[in-house]
Amino acid sequence: MTDQTATAATERRSTSPDRDLSFDFAKGILIILVIVGHLLQYIMYRDNQYWYSPYFKSIYMFHMPLFMGISGYLSSGAHLQKTFTRGVQERAIQLLLPALFWSTLMEAVKLAAFTPALPSGLLGFPSELAGAYWFVWANFASFLLVGLLSAAGLGSTRIISISAVLVAFAPVTFSIAPLIRYTYPFFCLGLLLARSDWRTSALIRHKSILFFLLSGLALVCFLAWGKETYVYNNLVLVYDVQSAKQVLLMFIGSAAASAVAFEVVLRCWQFSHSSRIARFIAVELGQSTLVLYLIQASLFRLMDLVQFGELWNFPARIAIAIALCITIVVIGISVRRSVGGLGFMSRLVLGAKPRSTLPNTQFAVPNCGESYTAQPTKR
Fold first, then answer.
1. Under a CB-based contact definition with an 8 Å cutoff, are residues 286 and 364 in contact?
2. Of 129-143, 275-289, 309-323, which gets the smallest average pLDDT?
3. How high is the pLDDT of residue 307?
4. How far is CA 61 from CA 67, 187, 226, 318, 347, in A?
5. What is the greatest pairwise CA distance in the chain?
């Protein structure tokens, strides 16, 4: 097959009139950052020193908020074009069904290889289902809450904005609630941007100045960011002046860094969209983000049960991290290609319709009105 023929085949397989591959490209970059972030935790820093790593900070300042913002942006059509019941039902099948499948598979491996007592392993299943795939639940909860507001006639910009503030600062710390409260405002922001005419606003006409200001703000927040700024440690709780500073720094820093990162990614896509690498990231990775997220989440959660790597030298850790990253990508793409056309299996494993309609509905972290996914940090 010639290069031109291969490119044309890729175009037919993965594009549609209403699909913007720049979003797929952004999702592909983000899912790689999700994997790299966890490699920093589990391979490069197995002594909890990753909190102080500038590389870890660079990723965790924005990758989850931006994932959620893109999801909100691309989910706007579902809220406008579908009934509440249908939208929630489709989103549950798309997100929760594959999460249940991969969580069950992970528990089966744990029980077979690590846990001799079956009952004790089953008792922890709900916690694992929530914790390992928290972004799936955060995405679904955000979609559900906005859907409820819209169904009740409270879907205006003002009400959704108020709900973002109320949810963010609600003093609820049960299970993954802090992570939902942290990401929900970004889902709302993406949703509201999709409804607005921001592409033609005065700010966009002066986006170079805005980009410069946001870059400066992101840099300042990066320098001030510490261990207690991460949502996993502050739990989005405000109980004194210091905690208020950390929570506000987290939200402001994440918002500024997300905006800067997204603009950089879009410029990279504009510059390289015709290259093989860019199209691979957009088509193969960006349209496989859900399954990649679920696979890497399962793998790294299993690694919590394995004690290894403390004596590895730095080059060995780098080599193992690269090998794991490549392995996750290869498995994810292979699984998608293998079951993508198998009807119910495609729904169960990938959260996507069979391949005949896959280009328009493939889940990841946003896809033409659909929702997407990412990953938690080890705690």
1. yes
2. 309-323
3. 59
4. 12, 16, 11, 23, 32
5. 65
| One-letter-per-residue 3-state SS of 251-292 | HHHHHHHHHHHHHHHHHHHHHHCCCHHHHHHHHHHCCCHHHH
Closest residue by Cα to residue 170 from 237, 117, 229, 220: 237
- For residue 49, count other CB atoms closer than 10 A to its CB: 12
271, 8 Cβ separation under 8 angstroms: no
The pLDDT score that the predictor gives to residue 47 is 75
Instruction: Say yes or no to pLDDT of 273 above 90.
Output: yes
Tokens 């592909």 found at: 28
Can you give the three-state secondary structure of 137-173, one letter per residue? HHHHHHHHHHHHHHHCCCCCHHHHHHHHHHHHCCCCC
Name the 3-class secondary structure at 319.
helix
Rg of the chain taking only CA atoms, in angstroms = 20
- Residues β-bridged to residue 367: 370
pLDDT over 70 at 114, yes or no: no
Return d(Cα 93, Cα 146) in angstroms, integer: 18
Residue 44 structure tokens: 């490069």
What helix, strand, coil percent values describe the chain, rounded to 5? 75, 0, 25
What's the average model confidence in pLDDT over 59-86? 89
Per the CB < 8 A criterion, the answer to whether 59 and 353 are in contact is no
- Average pLDDT of the residues of the chain: 85
Residue 105 tokens read as 């598979």
**DSSP assignment, residue 305?**
T
Q: What are the structure tokens assigned to 244, written together?
A: 């208020």
pTM: 0.87
Kindly tell me if the per-residue pLDDT of 117 is higher than 70: no
Q: Residue 194: CB partners within 8 Å, gap ≥ 6?
A: 72, 73, 74, 76, 77
Exposure string (b/e) for 278-292, b if CB count within 10 Å is 16 or more? bbbbbbbbbbbbbbb
- Alpha carbon distance, N-terminus to C-terminus of the chain: 48
